[in-house]
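The passage that follows is intended for readers who have already worked through the single-chain material. We present the inputs for a multi-component assembly, then the predicted structure in tokenized form, and finally a short commentary. You are encouraged to pause after the input and sketch how you expect the pieces to fit together before reading on.
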Amino acid sequence: AMDTVRIAVVGAGVIGLSTAVCISQVVPGCSITVISDKFSPDTTSNVAAGILIPHTYPDTPVPTQKQWFTETFQHLSAIATSAEAVDAGVHLVSGWQVFRSVPTEEVPFWADVVLGFRKMTEAELKRFPQYEFGQAFTTLKCETAAYLPWLEKRLKESGGLLLTRRIEDLWELQPSFDIVVNCSGLGSRQLVGDSMISPVRGQVLHAQAPWVKNFIRDGSGLTYIYPGTSYVTLGGTRQKGDWSLSPDVELSREIFSRCCALEPSLHRAHNIREKVGLRPSRPGVRLQKEILVRGGQRLLVVHNYGHGSGGISVHWGSALEATRLVMDWIRTLRIPAPVSKL
Amino acid sequence: MVAGVMRVVVIGAGVIGLSTALCIHERFHPAQPLHMTIYADRFTPFTTSDVAAGLWQPYLSDSSNPQEAEWGQQTFDYLLSHIHSQDAEKVGLSLISGYNLFQHEDPSWRNTVLGFRRLTPREMDIFPEYSYGWFNTSLSLEGKRYLPWLTERLMERGVKLFHRKVESFEEVARGGADVIINCTGVWAGALQTDALLQPGRGQIIQVEAPWMKHFILTHDSSLGIYNSPYIIPGSKTVTLGGVFQLGNWNELNSVHDHNSIWKRCCKLEPTLKNARIVGELTGFRPARPQVRLEREKLHFGSSSAEVIHNYGHGGYGITVHWGCAMEAANLFGKILEEKKLSRMPPAHL
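Having made your guess, compare it with the prediction:
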């Protein structure tokens, strides 16, 4: 009989939890423990609005990004039209992305993945006098406040464990675990010494404005209005290398002002709260295997981090790839080692 | 020649009554001084307009009166021009996108709404019971907000509103009204028999389902308009409906209708089973083959009164209200001209 493969997933944001759930669905005979110092509602993912519009990674090939986005979109579509939709926090939302001047790429790589993508008509653009060009489409919103707890529940139902603990060194997980899946996001900077990952600070506002039913996004990605189930997210900022988690009052005013310029009715929004998140920004997503060696020990690792502003948009595709890499490692484990010392 | 004060009485305080009153008052007062009063036995939130979800959408087939399409277009354009006002939310006005599902050709108003397009095959997969549909962005105007806003604007202008059940045009004429604007909706028959006017009874369930961001309207030509399930999100609740019963005056909510609406809407949108029901209402659409928007001069013994009828807007009152208010104002203008001409001294003196 084969021993149960013991898998530790470090990190409980959208990447960690979805990777854990994916592994539990696909890989037979394994035990999964998610270990993190923070769980929902205190993760970086909780600050994100969760709109499915991909972010472009300069160092990840476009076909790969498209594949991850497509897999995520299809996966969430199935949830959105199922009985689980409300518990999982996934629903459809339509809206507009507007550009001050016509972009070089009028039709992005993900145009055929979202629903009903088309150029905005002249009449629709009239509402945005400072903008020359726009795209209209229907996409999904994956609300982390519900989605993360929903993933946690599914993991527990399949026998997975959740452990609150801060890991300072991956070797702490030896010898309790056979494979470590590192989904620690920005934490990887310290945890595995990756200097390519750094924070891009994002500040957003959560406002009550339930009459706003459509999203509006400035093509630059800096200003956006995303209506959700319990509040509308108004954003945002992109501050490279800024580690501060305290809201900046001046920035809040400025964000509010930019959003009101796009949607004046927001002036009547109330109960506004500020949130800050540090995007785990990296030129490309690190999704690869690694063997760590120390003394006579080896540690099999799969890295899945560095999703920047696009984590929720590609999370399931990323989880599927990480799961494939985990299965590679499992095959290695199950081949008897030719010599006991490596 | 100094224009004297015209005494105007508006009967009815639904969306038609209040908007017609405002349109006329804004257009003519104070150049033509108006003393305007509104009488109604129901005010917001108890009017038919308060039951309506407030989505701008005409019926699928054109009315026998081509003017109605114009009135709808005028209303849409008028509302859209106010969408960026800071007051939009106070007025109860916002944009909303969504789906119409069925088997029908494209409606004539496809160029009025924003971004009208056919649904793609992948979108149709979301609605497995239907084979064709379209998507567009339209406007939502909620009676519960709009009527109070109209009332405020009227009161600011010195118009008085009274809770009073008018029993006849004669009583209003003898009270001194020069012009009567009849916006009594489905109850117009009580003031003057109208065989063409019937109640189109509707019942709706209001639920909390804040994840719903699109309207979904289904259509079945064999059942008739609005006898098929529809889901229309509002600013605070989502309206579920799909009942249009001609001739039914029952103002009580029907258990049978509740079950039918609930079952069919949940089938259309399964996530609704998680929604909390917070209200249920019945309203009577003032159904008529076409809107009655015309003048009539009534004589009572030696006196007479000019009446402008503006009623019978069926299930599209909010959709055409402003175009109709403007037409009523046009008719009012004609009345003023005629009165001026009749007061002018004969040319030979």
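Commentary: The longest strand of chain A covers residues 270-281. The two ends of chain A are 24 Å apart (CA to CA). How closely did your sketch match?
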